[in-house]
Amino acid sequence: MTKYIISLDQGTTSSRSVIINHRGEIVDINQKEIKQYYPKNGWVEEDPLEIYESQIYTLKSCLIKNNILPDQIYSVGITNQRETTILWNKKTGKPVYNAIVWQCKRSSNICDELRNSGYADMIHKITGLILDPYFSATKIKWILDNIDGVRDEAEEGNILFGTVDTWLLWMLTDGQSHYTDVSNASRTMLFNINTKKWDDDLLDILDIPRTILPEIKPTAYHFGNISNSIFEGSIPIHCLIGDQQSALFGQLCTDIGDIKNTYGTGCFTLMNTGEKPVFSNNGLLTTVAWEYDNRCYYAIEGSVFVGGAVIQWIRDELGIIKNASESNTLAKSVQDNNGVIFISTFQGVGTPYWCSNVKAQISGLSRSTKKAHIVRAALESIAFRTMEVINTMELDSEIKISSLKVDGGACRNDFLMEFQSGISNVDIVRPTNTESTALGAAYMAGLYSKFWKDIYELKHLKKTDRTFKPSMDSKTREKRVNEWSKAIKKAIGD
Ligand SMILES: Nc1ncnc2c1ncn2[C@@H]1O[C@H](COP(=O)(O)OP(=O)(O)O)[C@@H](O)[C@H]1O
Ligand SMILES: O=P(O)(O)OC[C@H](O)CO
């Protein structure tokens, strides 16, 4: 009987189930979009039940479509949008509030208070993170402080917290497992990156009861089995991993200095720094990459909050394209951006500036501006922000970056890849299989369960689709980078 690894990839905009065979090939993917709610300016929420149900729906329908029986599932890995915060009542199993999504800025005031009380440096030293509403800690505090009765229930031990990995695991195991892994824990701003434990000082400062937190485990571990009420048989869950760390592993960036950028809703560049955390003074985050086989690896990470999401906005709100891939054809239909600069900072700006109150801007519009110029400028903005992250990484790691592995939905856009290569003067390496996030969790689960022998076996399975070589001359590059730098600094009021 043929066996498969299943990767459950719960992303910001959709849930995917991916079936992977022993050759590391994707047999099939099923995907379902999930709804985002924007109840106030800067607020972003999702429905935790929709997150779970969409995930189960894609899994069941994918198995049925491919005539795969539960017995054929060797192991399951879960990878997820990170930081997104869910609190639920452990007796009823019901969420006490919507999931507060990583993009949500509602806890900016809590961050300001912490900053004004002088905690920013301490938080950076303990967690490797920059004090920002992006991370889970202040979102948890917001729910405890603002939703009636939740703090009292938490103090009575009836409330559980989880990022999306923990929530899915708890639901899939029928409330048996309340765990997270080190990669997800390192995104909460409650995890001490040096001791690899929840940090009691931070819990005190934020007034968060320890009882709501999941137990922290390595990335590869036997987290429990999918409940018989969902699937008959005993399907083991062998991996939980944050989606960006998963993409790093899926690209097999397993050596120091290996680097990837994922062009999804946001863009996240991660560089493997080996078995010790490297701290940045220039706005990069220090994060756990994964813990596997008793070895913990770290990464530095640059965050761009709006990546492919700008194309989604152009599609859904401006309505000037019907689908994301049309942006490639339109951008290529014009010679240049005709002076249009799109600062796509709808959700604040991350690395290297870290400023949560910036608005997005389109400048340089004239009577000759065509919709193609706006679309082209939007794609350029994704590449310019990624360029800023790459420059910061070179500064902090003292490693010259000459090649970047890419993945995620928007890396299928050839214009974007060509422009990225030109503006950053790097080779862009796009794999045949761009679902690196799903692959990472599958590889991890497959190594743990001995479906694959080791990383070397996996390295033989990888294929490159295309390498984009820089074709922009240095004079143009310098001019374009200067224009961009002036525009973004103006936007953030520097
Ligand atoms: N061909 C394309 N060109 C530009 N952007 C694209 C393209 N295809 C998808 N995208 C963008 O990529 C994002 C989806 O990528 P995905 O990796 O699925 O995201 P996530 O995991 O964050 O939900 C969307 O924001 C979409 O607008
Ligand atoms: O869902 P993605 O792929 O945009 O990833 C979101 C990140 O995990 C946020 O930190």
Automatic annotation (TrEMBL):
ADP binds at T12, R16, T265, G308, G409, N413. It catalyses: glycerol + ATP = sn-glycerol 3-phosphate + ADP + H(+). Glycerol binds at R82, E83, Y134, D243, Q244. PANTHER family: GLYCEROL KINASE (PTHR10196:SF69), SUGAR KINASE (PTHR10196). ATP binds at T12, T13, S14, T265, G308, Q312, G409. Residues 4-250 form the Carbohydrate kinase FGGY N-terminal domain. Key enzyme in the regulation of glycerol uptake and metabolism. Catalyzes the phosphorylation of glycerol to yield sn-glycerol 3-phosphate. This is Glycerol kinase. Pathway: Polyol metabolism; glycerol degradation via glycerol kinase pathway; sn-glycerol 3-phosphate from glycerol: step 1/1. Its EC number is 2.7.1.30. InterPro entries: ATPase_NBD, Carb_kinase_FGGY, Carb_kinase_FGGY_CS, FGGY_C, FGGY_N, Glycerol_kin. Keywords: ATP-binding, Glycerol metabolism, Kinase, Nucleotide-binding, Transferase. Sn-glycerol 3-phosphate binds at T12, R82, E83, Y134, D243. Inhibited by fructose 1,6-bisphosphate (FBP). It comes from Thiospirochaeta perfilievii. Residues 261-446 form the Carbohydrate kinase FGGY C-terminal domain. One of its GO terms (biological process) is glycerol-3-phosphate metabolic process. GO terms for molecular function: ATP binding; glycerol kinase activity. Belongs to the FGGY kinase family. GO terms for cellular component: cytosol.
